[in-house]
What we know:
By secondary structure, the protein is mainly α. Helix content is 71%, strand content 1%.
Amino acid sequence: MIGVWALVAFVAVIILWNAVVKRNIGEAMILGFLAVCAFALIGGTEDGGSAWTAIEEAVIDAMQEEVTFAGLAFVFMSYLLAATPVLDRLIDLLNSVLGRLRGGSVYTATVAGGIFGAIAHVGAAITAAVGSVTVPWMKRAGVKPELAATVAAGGAGMGVSFPFSSTMFILVGGLTAQGIMQSGEIVKPLAIAGLWCLGYRMVLAWFLIRRNGIAPIAAEDRLPLRRSLRSGWTSLLLFVPILVPLLLTRGPLAEALGTYSGVSDTMKKPVQLADGTTLPAQPYAMPDVISLITWIPVLMIALVLFLGRKHLPRTATGWWSTIGKAAPSFGVIGITIVAAFCASNLLADLGLASQLETVLSGLDAPGWLMAIAIGIIIVAIAIPLTASATMAAVGPVAVTALVGAGIPAPVAAAAVLIFASTEGASPPSGAPIYVAAGIAQVDPVKTFMPLLKYYCLPILAIGVLIAVGALPV
Length: 473
């Protein structure tokens, strides 16, 4: 069980160094990773290979993660936006339409997260696309930066809690191969489960708005719609960097491009699940070759450079100064993301997935207790791993355990996916946390407790209530 103990040590070291010693999260994540390295050097890897090689590969893979690039790109984008009036004009326009509503920016962020999640299904991309507009808007409306980042990151899980994410297909593929359920049986329960999660987030938005005294934008601070539209219509182009990658990866245009380019004719490698089940090779799709999380910040930066060209530096010295101002955030967020992925990769090499599978297989309890136990285990796994990796590792085993406790397979599968959807709100390793923190220009550690309190634990509870039938799906 060395992988399990390494996970416990990873989380404990981070909490100790950050919360008790009061040092920054970057240092804490590095020490957490070093703790996992110590377990690897003492206990060895699952396949018996060299621990030093596993550590080296974990670091190299982490440096190549697209989320690492995206987190830093959004930090730079936020500085560019702050240096130009482009986003200010868009916020003026949004306030002209919705600013009269109390907490209109928070409601918009929540609903937009649900809509984008039902389309894109990538947690960090949801936070990036929605947060790049709504986080600055929330801050302008008087929302504290850490709360704005919390709301943006808290919506990331809706990509998993609605059909048809890759995470869903990984889980359903394993269950179908074992004859536990048919692939189509999950769609309705998961869609309803996703609506329960969205409904909770709307209630939470209402609560946060009133608890934090978020008032409507004063009438004297709201421009008339005609005036804000006349002066800021070009700011609406900020949605283009979101829409273009989306259209190229989803829908009829994406299908046509995939067929024309030959992408759809190329097959992926078969997927090997932790329980030994092998999913057949699937054709590539446009989301596999055009990454939302990479291209949204790239296109956004390019557009801001164009729209705000009159307000940006024109000399090398000026640009050096602008980039220098972003350097502290680059350091903390970059180191934190890399350390999180390093630890995740090394924990996988230590056999965390198979060890937790053994724990799940040995559970024998009433349905309600089984749902709580499996929910906690999956949420714990989703701290260092993505939802897709979690489902590949223990998803089918978790559903089988719930079915054995008398819970219908489609309901069990929906509940397990809801548990896994907490990955975006699970500190300290959730990538959406650092994307949101970068946009909000806030220390990510300030979002940890709010995310646990407002999103992670309540979504866990919703999954349990779905499993036991208290919330019908």
